[in-house]
Amino acid sequence: MNSKIKLAFEKIVGTTNILTQDLNPFNTDWMNKYVGSSEIVLTPQTTDQVSQILRFCNENSLKVVPQSGNTGLVGGSVPIKDEIIISMRKMNQIYEFDLNSAIITSDSGVILENLNNYLFQYKYQMPWDLGARGSCMLGGNISTNAGGLNVVKHGLLRNYVLGLEVVLPNGKILNLLNKNRKDNTGTDLKQLFIGSEGTLGIITKANVLCIPIPNEKKVFFLELKSFQDVIKVLQKVKRNEQLLAFEFMEGKILHKNMHRHSGNKLPFDFQEDKYYVLLEIAGQSLNVDQFSLDMMEFTEEIVMNQNEKEAQFLWKLREEIAESMGKMGYVLKYDVSIPPDKFEWLVNQIYPKREGPFHVYYGHVGDGNVHINIVFESLSELHKEEDKIEQKLFGLVKSQGGSISAEHGIGQHKRKYMELQKGRDVLGCLSEIKRLFDPNGIMNPNKLL
Ligand code: FAD
Ligand code: 2HG
Ligand code: ZN
C-alpha cells in the first residue's frame, strides 16, 4: 500500500482504525470460495469518517468494498482484486427504540442478534431472522435485502426499513432517515439502496419498524413420504395467519448430519428417502390441535416442541445445513425462486435420477425459495462444473418465471446472468443509475452489474 495513501487514511480515521496485517478473514468469504487481495482494511467509527474516506477514494480513483459481517454467500463482501475494505464493525451504536412507533434507530454495524438482545427488554424483535444472526449486521442485511426464516409471515425486509443514512461515493451524506410510519413524499429514494449490495453507497444508519415478540409459539417437525405431500401440507396450512415459518429439508442431509447429535434425542430416525418439514406457528391463543389435525392428513407422526430448548434444537437441525455442507467440501450454492411444486422437478432436471456429486435441496418452501447445494472436493472441480450447471439451472428457472436469486443476491457469483434475469432494457436502466451515483465506478466494482 502506497504510504501517501495510508497517511491520508490515518489522518481521517487514526492509526487504530487501519489494519494492514492478518487480513485473510476480511479477504476471504464465508464459503472459502472467493478470495481477494486487499492490503488495507479501514474501520471508521463515524459517518463523517466514512464520508471523508469515500471522498478521498473518489478523488483518487481508489476502489472500495463495504463489508459488514462478511456472511454473504455470493462473493459480494470481499474484494475481487485489491480494493480497499471498509469494515462497518465499529459503527455499532444503537440510538433508541420508540415504544409508540416501534421503530429502532441504529448504526448499520450492529450485529442482528445484538439488536434482538436490545429489543428484548421492550418485548419487541427485528422483523427478519436468519441463521447468520450472530455475525451478520444491520447494514449487510439491508444491502442484501435479506430474506430468512420468517418471510412467509412477515414479508421482506424492505417493507420494514423506514429510513436510512447513506454516504455516496463522492462523500455526500444523504439523510434519508425517517421515523414516520407513513411518508408519501414522492419517489422513495432509500429503496434504491436496499438490496443494491454496496454498489451505490455505504449505509451508515437505519430506522427499522420492529415487531412484537409473539406471546406463544410452537414448532412442529414432520416426516413425509413424498415431495407432493410437502406441497399438500403447504396448501393446507398456508392460509393460517399464525404460520410463521415453513421450511423443507431432504432426508438425505438430515440423515447425513445425524452423527452431529449423538447425545440428543432426534425427532425422527431420519431416512434418506423421506422428506421433512419444520413448521412454526406463533401468536396468541394458538390452536395447536386444529393445526396438528390439518397436517395429520399427510403425515403419520408429528413431533412438537415441549419447551424453548426443544424448539431451538429442532431449528438447529434446519439452520446447521448450510454450515454442514461447507464442512464436506467446496459448495456451489443456489437460492432460486420457483413455484414450490417445481422444486423436485428442477433438481431432477439438473441431476437426473439424482446422480452426480453429493447435492441436496432444502429451504423456504413457504416462500417459493429453494436452496440447492452441490459439494465438490476441490475448488478447481467446482469451477469446471459451475458454468454448465448454471446455464441449465438458470435457464430452467427463467422458463418457469422464477428468479436466479431469491435472497442471497448477485455479488460476483451471478453477475453474468443479470441480463438473462432482467432483460436488456432493465439492465441498461440499472447501469444508468449506477453511473449517476458512482460515475468513477469505485463502489464494489464488478459486483451485481
Ligand atoms: P456482508 O456479507 O458483509 O455484505 C453483504 C453485501 O452487502 C456485500 O455486497 C457488501 O459489500 C454489502 N454491504 C455490507 N454492509 C454494507 C453497508 N453498510 N452499506 C452498503 N453495502 C454494504 N441470507 C438470506 O437472505 N437468508 C437467509 O436465510 C440466510 N441465511 C444464512 C445462513 C448462514 C449460516 C450464512 C453464513 C449466510 C446466510 N445468508 C442468508 C446470507 C447472509 O447472511 C446475508 O446476505 C446477510 O444479509 C449478509 O449480512 P452481512 O452483515 O454479513 O453482510
Ligand atoms: C439458509 O436458508 C441460508 O439456510 C443458506 O439462506 C442457504 O447455504 C445455503 O445455500
Ligand atoms: Zn435461505
From TrEMBL:
Alphabetized, the UniProt keywords read: FAD, Flavoprotein, Oxidoreductase
Gene Ontology molecular function: D-lactate dehydrogenase (cytochrome) activity; FAD binding
Q: Which InterPro entries match?
A: FAD-bd_oxidored_4_C (IPR004113), FAD-bd_PCMH (IPR016166), FAD-oxidored/transferase_4 (IPR051264), Oxid_FAD_bind_N (IPR006094)
Domain FAD-binding PCMH-type, by residue range, is: 34-213
Q: Does rRNA processing count among this protein's keywords?
A: no
This entry's Enzyme Commission designation comes to 1.1.2.4
- Alphabetized Pfam families for the sequence: FAD-oxidase_C, FAD_binding_4
Q: Enzyme group, top EC level?
A: oxidoreductase
- Highest taxon of source: Eukaryota
Its Gene Ontology cellular component terms are: mitochondrion
Instruction: Name the coenzymes or cofactors required.
Output: FAD
The family line of this record is: Belongs to the FAD-binding oxidoreductase/transferase type 4 family.
This one is known as: D-lactate dehydrogenase (cytochrome)
